[in-house]
Amino acid sequence: MPWLMLKQQLNLKLSQKLSPQQIQLMKLIQLPTQQFEQRIMQEMEENPALEGGKEDDFEDIADEFDNEDTYDEENDRIDTEDINIDDYLSDDDIPDYKLQANNYSADDEEKHIPYAAGKTFTEYLQDQLSTVHLELDEEDIAYFLVGSIDESGYIRRSIPDIMDDLAFTQNIYTTEDKIEKVLKIIQELDPPGVAALDLRECLLLQLERKTPSPAVLLAINILSNEFDAFTKKHYDKLIQKFDVSEEELRQAVNEIERLNPKPGGSYSESTRIIEHIVPDFNIRIVDGKLELSLNGRNAPELHVSKEYSEMLQGYKETSEKSQSQKDAVQFIKQKLDAAKWFIDAIKQRQQTLMITMNAIMHYQEEYFLTGDERKLKPMILKDIADQVGMDVSTVSRVANSKFVDTPYGTKLIKDFFSESMTNDQGEEVSTKEIKKILEITIGEENKKKPLTDDKLALILKEKGYPIARRTIAKYREQMDIPVARMRKEI
Q1: Lowest mean pLDDT among 31-35, 102-106, 116-120, 296-300
Q2: Contact criterion met (CB below 8 Å) for 26 and 397
Q3: pLDDT by residue (tens digit) across 276-321?
């Protein structure tokens, strides 16, 4: 058996490690305005040495704070290396036990602010169901069916599968006829079309509630007997099948197009919490020139607490220093360090945001002056990173989830970035420019004979953009534009 030998040897290697301050700055840069405000409030709650207000007194406090005589007794000076800054940096990996406290008695007053909660779509249907007269065995089936309706308003299960689910999960043994009977009752609830098993049934349920008219009756007939032909827009076949004129078919199709294919979505939209977008930057045109400003909420006025500075000064003037006083000054110094670092990080964040956005604004100056998306130049993160002398990851953090208020609306910054293609003149053009031209071309087409992808490719080639048919299809799908057959109108 070979002997195992232990060796000791020295190795030298270079490694790059981010300081806690750099980590803090990177995390602040990527936050949009609203989350940045919340982060400031959190830091001010956790660090009493940090206060809001003017920064006039900060420099004097900082100079005093940086003095080496802050605490020096018997060569036992507290240094920044003795400070644990982990408690002052935001981290997503904080254990739960650090965020919870169980030292509350049953008599403690509940001080949480109550928030109004809207009804869910399921609760809305259950409230209606409570007004319907049902037999005892039908009531359990009805509530199970309501619970099976998804957010779009459909039941995505077949009747036999529902029967099996009732037996295995609810211990309810019934028949398909009984389930269909209860389902018809639920389908009479609002919104019209709810609890349908498929799109065809959803549309028919809505049409059946309309006042009968020749157009409505023809629409019901089309969906009942020629649904596939309708979805494929074979209008000539429908005119022949039902022996109607083109105008009569157009009226019937208009009735169908006014229906809601997702009845549950209408309720969800009305109860959804509205999220307000707060732009991080503002761009204005003043005397024909672009003017950039940072949202004031991105640059709050913070300073180090004067009370904490006076406490530190009082300790320096004390002749006798006990161990408890040493512990107190270490705590104060930790808080002052954290406050100073946080203020510096905010200043650096403000500077980084302005430099980066200013480079983006001038790179896309022609677009910001005109608002024409066809003027957008090809631009990738590296283009801006090279201009401002920063890393690509820093530029990515600035562009991530941030908005700019322009004369043409509030825009997501990352939307200004796009890849490039070469036109027939050898010039690089943005893919956004090509998409805009493609959108305009489709918008101007004859809807009775929509342009196929092959024809679109030929048209764009004539305009100087040699693009393959598959690329046209890819751009069309990215813009949520259907194929030519589905764009056809009567």
Answers
A1: 102-106
A2: yes
A3: 778 889 999 999 899 999 887 776 777 777 776 677 666 666 666 6
**Residues contacting 311, CB < 8 A, separation 6+:** 328, 332
How many Å apart are CA 43 and CA 37, to the nearest integer?
10
Copy the structure tokens of residue 133: 């007269």
Straight-line distance from the first to the last Cα atom of the chain, in angstroms, rounded to the nearest whole number: 89
Q: Which of 388, 416, 444 is the last residue of a domain?
A: 416
Q: Give the C-alpha separation, 94 to 81, whole Å.
A: 22
3-state secondary structure 107-158: CCCCCCCCCCCCCCHHHHHHHHHCCCCCCHHHHHHHHHHHHCECCCCEECCC
- Which DSSP string do the residues of 243-287 spell out, in sequence order? T--HHHHHHHHHHHHTS-S-HHHHHHHHHSPPPPP--SEEEEEET
Q: Helix or strand or coil: residue 419?
A: coil
- The verdict on residue 35 lying in a domain is no
DSSP state of 101: -
Q: How far is CA 346 from the centre of its chain?
A: 24
SS3 406: strand
Tokens 């048209």, located at residue: 459
314 shares its domain with 403: yes
Q: pTM score, two decimals? A: 0.53
61-96 in b/e burial notation, b at 16+ Cβ within 10 A? bbebbeeeebbeeeeeebeeeebebeebbeeeeeee
Domain assignment present for residue 209? The answer is yes
269 has pLDDT over 70: no
Which tokens belong to 469?
Answer: 């048919």
71 contacts: CB under 8 Å, gap ≥ 6:
77, 78, 315, 316, 326, 329, 333
Q: Find out whether 232 and 485 touch, Cβ atoms under 8 Å.
A: yes
Whether 290 and 393 map to the same domain: the answer is yes
Give the tens place of pLDDT for each residue, 372-385: 877 888 888 888 99
